[in-house]
Predict the 3D structure of the following.
Amino acid sequence: MTAKIAILAGDFIGPEIIHEAVRVLKCLQKHFGLNVELEHADVGGAAYDKSGNPLPEATLEICKSADSILFGAVGGPQYEALERDLRPEQALLRLRTERELFANLRPATLFPQLTNTSSLKPEVVSGLDIMIVRELTGGIYFGQPRGFRTLENGERESFNTLVYSEHEVRRIAHTAFQVALKRKRKVCSVDKANVLEVSELWRQIMIEVSKEYPEVELSHMYVDNAAMQLVKWPKQFDVIVTDNLFGDILSDTAAMLTGSIGMLPTASLDKNGKGLYEPIHGSAPDISATGVANPLATILSVAMMLRYSLNEAEMATQIEQAVSDVLDLGMRTQDIADGGSYVSTRNIGDAVVNILKSR
């Protein structure tokens, strides 16, 4: 059966990094028998410039029918003055909602060849391999009511609502435990149960769900301590599961332990394992069209897609090994060159594809 993949390149370096990832997909089609159909569509600022909508209905329909979405990056300074609903980033938020992509998987893995690029001591981060499972469609980012108002005394006030229902917590808990079963079988649930009622319910449900996974060890940690521990002793963690806001913050903290966000992919999954895959970095207007963007996070996003949505774990491993081999060759893009010489976006793509062809 042919799997359909929607390709949404986006803005600035988005098309550059997506181009290299698509080359990898086409290599797998030709040399490994990957059975996929690719369909390209506009999104973000590029879509707004053409249609006045960052997520046109035609693009949304393509994404709804796709088994997976490969997403580049969106946004740029020229769009910041637009109404919030028209900004490029809203396309991503709407895709998450429309496709019910409630589970965000954010690996923080340090390739051994890049240990010295981390800002932490090598002995602290060497061998780092964490998976953060972030609830993506609930919590304070989506809770109602929200908005602005003026009080009777004329003072302005703004407000957001933090709310989680039982089913939202339960399904992200199952995702975390299922991911842990394929790893070291340890889950740390991060909350703020000493202050927030929402976190009290979160913790209760995590404990309830854990009884269905007796082979997985469950621990709990307050978010402030978790932030400290990620910097102090990150290798204590295997799988971290947390809510939307805490996950947003902790996953970016964990990303920097690896030395560069240019190396980190992410997956956002629905209940059936279909999902959206993207690098965690932004559209980087400052380096667009200079040929120095790092495509490896996007290429590794393809590997995550193969593993989590397309059931092609062996091909995923081949990509990951090819990336490691490229690093072994000493090839670096500017962000991971640590002050030394570096190669272009296209050079890195060439190297990954050539290694895959040689297998």
The first strand starts at residue 3 and ends at 10.
